[in-house]
């Protein structure tokens, strides 16, 4: 009906019968326009309608429908019905499609519609980097400091605080931030706001060493391959919340660390599911992309390298008696310079390229034994589309790849005057879906491994496909971590 009414309005306007013409006729200029319109009836309406038509065509071109890619034989999930008290099985992908309409139903948000003046991936990325929405997504954290075996310190920020929400069996999301980020990031706070304030879940942000105002207390930072700090944090969270179901989400470099951890843990992983957002996957490929592109080499890489240098020089005294040349670090410009002069030396890699190759989580995707969702924008100028391990994600029956044509790096902004992240809704829907699969506390539920059925054949296939070094003495076949004395 609305379409017919729109056509009728256009027809009235072209014929000079629309009420707008009466308004114009009451002014001298309007009268002249009306006379001109009567002589050439199509010219003025077309000139007036042309901008709206161009905007509509531009919007159709920039809209980005959600595209899903997954294994032909996905794992089945054992679900619990609280009403009947019985367990039943459902195909993992069918379950996610049913519980996450913003991933499959275009009428419910399965189309990313970027802000009209921010359709470029570069603009989305720049906006995400420089606009922090300080007056929105206000989260009251409770910080806890944890000491690492080498004398280092990491922090975890709980939301809500234990004063507001005492220890119980509430499902909890563990969040990993991007490079030099922290719990203050808007992409983290927007998700926490939905999950904690609207749905009553608990969240905890893992802030890496020296990030988010965490003091550096040892001569070690963090990197894409170092998962021991996350492993320690997960054990602490499990000890603190023995009855809570856990899952995790990582952003950018944090998602690379998370996927490495998931692959290393295999079927012993404490998380019941995970989400990867804006993951670079292949650090070597990302490095090459930075070096060969004009904006990558002159903007993105120096910006990320500068952020790392700021963290380093804030704690430079910790590295005075190490093999790191502080003045050489100062002369560095790009992120590759920093990784070559600092990161690889801290973590005992022989070359920076060896670090990039061995830290890339794409080689551990096939070893993940928990449902996981990977969200990427194909116009991401940092975590580029050509580095997405499509075959590995589709080859894993636990995997689900979600892509949009636009969105930039951790952007996905929509709305003209007031911007919101489109990705917050599907990400929160996925978290809720996984938590609701079996809402019972840990002691009343089967082990996490038994939640997923019909995976024997798929695991055999994965064992044959995987090109990573595998520990065959481990039941789950988790990948072996490179052994280094740090």
TrEMBL record:
Transmembrane segments: 42-61
GO molecular function: acetylesterase activity; monoacylglycerol lipase activity
Gene3D superfamilies (alphabetical): alpha/beta hydrolase
Keywords (A to Z) from UniProt: Hydrolase, Membrane, Transmembrane, Transmembrane helix
Source taxon at top rank: Eukaryota
Domain AB hydrolase-1, residue spans: 171-268
Family: Belongs to the AB hydrolase superfamily. AB hydrolase 4 family.
Protein name: Alpha/Beta hydrolase protein
Organism annotation: Lobosporangium transversale
């Amino acid at each position: 009906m609305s379409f017919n009414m729109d056509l009728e309005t256009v027809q009235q306007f072209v014929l000079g019968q629309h009420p707008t013409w009466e308004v114009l006729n009451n002014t001298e200029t309007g009268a002249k326009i009306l006379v001109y319109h009567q002589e050439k009836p199509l010219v003025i309406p077309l000139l007036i309608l042309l901008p709206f038509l161009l905007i509509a065509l531009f919007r159709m071109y920039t809209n980005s429908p959600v595209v899903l890619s997954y294994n032909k034989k996905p794992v089945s999930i054992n679900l619990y019905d609280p009403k009947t008290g019985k367990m039943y099985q459902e195909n993992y992908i069918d379950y996610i499609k049913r519980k996450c309409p913003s991933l499959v139903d275009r009428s419910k948000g399965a189309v990313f519609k970027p802000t009209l003046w921010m359709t470029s991936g570069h603009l989305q990325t720049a906006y995400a980097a420089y606009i922090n929405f300080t007056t929105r997504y206000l989260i009251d954290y409770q910080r806890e400091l944890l000491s690492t075996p080498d004398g280092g310190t990491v922090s975890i920020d709980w939301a809500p605080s234990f004063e507001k929400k005492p220890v119980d069996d509430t499902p909890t999301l563990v969040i990993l931030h991007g490079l030099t980020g922290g719990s203050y990031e808007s992409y983290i706070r927007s998700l926490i706001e939905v999950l904690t304030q609207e749905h009553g879940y608990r969240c905890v942000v893992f802030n890496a060493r020296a990030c988010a105002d965490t003091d550096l207390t040892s001569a070690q930072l963090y990197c894409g391959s170092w998962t021991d700090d996350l492993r320690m944090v997960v054990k602490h969270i499990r000890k603190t919340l023995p009855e809570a179901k856990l899952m995790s989400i990582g952003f950018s470099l944090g998602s690379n660390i998370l996927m490495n951890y998931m692959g290393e843990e295999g079927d012993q992983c404490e998380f019941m599911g995970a989400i990867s957002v804006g993951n670079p996957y292949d650090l070597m490929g990302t490095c090459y992309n930075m070096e060969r592109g004009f904006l990558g080499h002159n903007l993105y890489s120096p910006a990320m390298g500068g952020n790392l240098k700021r963290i380093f020089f804030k704690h430079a005294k910790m590295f005075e008696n190490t093999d790191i040349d502080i003045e050489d670090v100062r002369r560095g410009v790009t992120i590759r310079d920093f990784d070559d002069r600092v990161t690889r030396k801290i973590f005992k890699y022989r070359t920076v390229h060896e670090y990039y190759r061995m830290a890339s989580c794409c080689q551990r995707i096939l070893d993940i034994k928990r449902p996981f969702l990977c969200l990427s924008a194909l116009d991401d100028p940092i975590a580029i589309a050509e580095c997405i391990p499509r075959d590995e994600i589709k080859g894993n029956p636990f995997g689900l790849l979600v892509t949009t044509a636009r969105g930039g790096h951790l952007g996905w902004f929509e709305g003209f005057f007031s911007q919101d992240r489109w990705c917050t809704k599907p990400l929160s829907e996925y978290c809720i879906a996984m938590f609701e699969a079996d809402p019972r506390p840990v002691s009343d539920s089967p082990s996490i491994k038994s939640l997923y059925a019909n995976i024997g054949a798929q695991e055999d296939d994965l064992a044959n496909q995987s090109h990573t070094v595998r520990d065959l003495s481990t039941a789950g076949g988790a990948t072996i971590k490179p052994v280094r004395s740090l």
